[in-house]
Design brief:
- It catalyses: L-aspartate 4-semialdehyde + pyruvate = (2S,4S)-4-hydroxy-2,3,4,5-tetrahydrodipicolinate + H2O + H(+).
- Catalyzes the condensation of (S)-aspartate-beta-semialdehyde [(S)-ASA] and pyruvate to 4-hydroxy-tetrahydrodipicolinate (HTPA).
- With about 290 residues, the protein is of the alpha/beta class.
- It has helices at about 25-35, 55-70, 85-95, 115-130, 140-145, 150-160, 170-180, 195-200, 210-215, 215-225, 230-250, 255-265, 280-290; strands at about 10, 40-45, 75-80, 105, 135-140, 160-165, 185-190, 205-210.
- About 45% of the residues lie in helices and about 15% in strands.
- The radius of gyration is 18 Å and the shape is globular.
- The N and C termini lie far apart (about 40 Å).
Length: about 290
Amino acid sequence: MHNSKFTGTGVALITPFKSDLSVDYKALERLVNFQIDNDIDYIVVLGTTAESATLSDEEKERVKQTIVEVNQNRVPLVLGLGSNNTQQLLADIKSTKFDGFDAILSVSPFYNKPTQEGIYQHFASLAKVCDLPIILYNVPGRTGSNIQPATVVRLANEFNQIIGIKEAAGDLEQAMTLIRDTPEDFLVISGDDMITLPMVLAGGAGVISVMAEAFPKEFSAMVNYGLNRDVNKAFELHYQFMHGIQLIFKEGNPAGIKAAFKHLDLAEATVRLPLVEASKQLKAEIKTFMAGL
């Protein structure tokens, strides 16, 4: 496994929409190039931030194709592919074409609230049929259940196919337990922008970020400073980002980051229901933050 390709800064890419709610594929091309031209290490496609739950199968396929074609193998691509229906996920894995992708990011089953044994069996089943490396995704605030460190350690030790976890519980103690107890080459990746730097300094592999989408060069620099143990420079950037991170998540994701992209003239701020655009007040606050940064 080439785990090192997922060290550093990955971004959870949005799906840009036009004002009529159709997918803006030209904007998607701009966004991919913007990330790559500004030092992002890899891109996550069709994750939560992409509003993938609101996309049709046809839209998902075209989004994937567009990103693969624009990327031209310049950075690794990770495909978001998860479900709370294990059998359906296995069928999807078997029918999906992974050309151009280097790994999958698979969220823990949501809504069902499985036990730890259920979570283990879900990912064990996935590992047995998926040819690509698998990054687990733990986000209790969305799924309704937490993948306990002991479950992650069990999966990491039993399946070489499972190479890491995007840890978004917002719990630094849990993150450090994962870093301490998983195999040395297992990637513990921050899924929480606010505690990315502490996790990196504790031994984490980097981040899959929302904030970094709008500030790829600066956020990547912070992560790289952290990985290289240049602590003072890393924290200088971290403290500059803190208020902005609070703002972009203030009214939900991806409404905030899409407001930032609108300010950068890269994409519209449009989201699909049941999400709504950031309020005028929040858009103004984000614009002020970006001008100051």
